[in-house]
Amino acid sequence: MNISTNPSQNPLFQRIEQSRRSKRKVRDTNITLAHGSGGKAMHDLIEDIFVNTFDNRILSQLEDQATFNLATLMQQGDRLAFTTDSYVVDPLFFPGGDIGKLAVNGTVNDLAVSGAKPLYLSCSVILEEGFAVETLRHVATSMKLAADKAGVEIVTGDTKVVHRGAVDKLFINTAGIGVIRKGVNISAHNIKAGDVVIINGELGNHGAAILIARGELALETDIESDCQPLNDLVETILDVCPDVRAMRDATRGGLATVLNEFAISSNVGIRLDEQSIHVREEVKGVCELLGLDPLYLANEGKLVVVLPRENAEIVLSAMKSHSAGKNACIVGEAVSSPSGIVFLKTVFGAERIVDMLVGEQLPRIC
């Protein structure tokens, strides 16, 4: 593990590590098959690394499920949102984040773009025999920090250990539930001609950061992943404009794939303006070197919002007041025809079709 890209330099990380050091039960330096056997070794691993780190009342009950009071949930909204995702990113640690931070923020953001307030997450890990216990501690602590920042709790989970070589080090699955506030109806089917498309900042930073972190290119840059929770930014948007048509985080497949999904679902066309789309020069350089298109690069902290044009200025102002949206801008609009098509007005004034991603630009990006 590259120490420059792990979370241990964070003072909050160090505080959590210090507070749980006296509670450690696992003395092994590496994961063994016994840690997935269901016996004492597994019990000690779960209590030491996960229960003591995530540290909340629901998880500490050590039941096979988390239970919630429905009346309390209904006070926050009238519908539940439920999502799940798996994380297999390589490398586990990269500039701006790691697999644990990614797993929490990815699930939080999938809930948030439905208009839900994320509340509870699960965490299931699949470990390779021989995986370093100390690295697992780093990942768990990173998840705790990300969960605290997003205002969610990790309340249930599972641990499996497989033979060496049957999985690549560590895979994580997180599921999450949240409550959708009343009066909010966000869907890719809602978009109408005349609506505007807004994103909250630069594209492609996550994809470029992962690519460079793999060490396959002799490049030195300061590009960091944009991995961050978006739920507070979404709350800020909905406070000033409950009538958001559609919203999605642009992860695998990037902005281009999200907008193609929107265009097909709502039977509209979407016109993008290349001059309005922000991409760092270093990311452009990586793309030019490898023949990639930043419109398809993965992001882990970028929000695509479609809303009525009359609400655009108030939403932009609200987004720019938030740290996660300070570089928000209008990048395009929905049009009546050609329907189901995304096209880009280039800096030279020509137009080209932006298809949905075919194949995989970068495998194991999240």
From TrEMBL:
<dbReference type="InterPro" id="IPR010918">
    <property type="entry name" value="PurM-like_C_dom"/>
</dbReference>
<dbReference type="InterPro" id="IPR016188">
    <property type="entry name" value="PurM-like_N"/>
</dbReference>
<dbReference type="GO" id="GO:0051604">
    <property type="term" value="P:protein maturation"/>
</dbReference>
<dbReference type="InterPro" id="IPR036921">
    <property type="entry name" value="PurM-like_N_sf"/>
</dbReference>
<feature type="domain" description="PurM-like N-terminal">
    <location>
        <begin position="70"/>
        <end position="180"/>
    </location>
</feature>
<dbReference type="Pfam" id="PF00586">
    <property type="entry name" value="AIRS"/>
</dbReference>
<feature type="domain" description="PurM-like C-terminal">
    <location>
        <begin position="192"/>
        <end position="344"/>
    </location>
</feature>
<comment type="similarity">
    <text>Belongs to the HypE family.</text>
</comment>
<dbReference type="Pfam" id="PF02769">
    <property type="entry name" value="AIRS_C"/>
</dbReference>
<dbReference type="InterPro" id="IPR011854">
    <property type="entry name" value="HypE"/>
</dbReference>
<dbReference type="InterPro" id="IPR036676">
    <property type="entry name" value="PurM-like_C_sf"/>
</dbReference>
<protein>
    <submittedName>
        <fullName>Hydrogenase expression/formation protein HypE</fullName>
    </submittedName>
</protein>
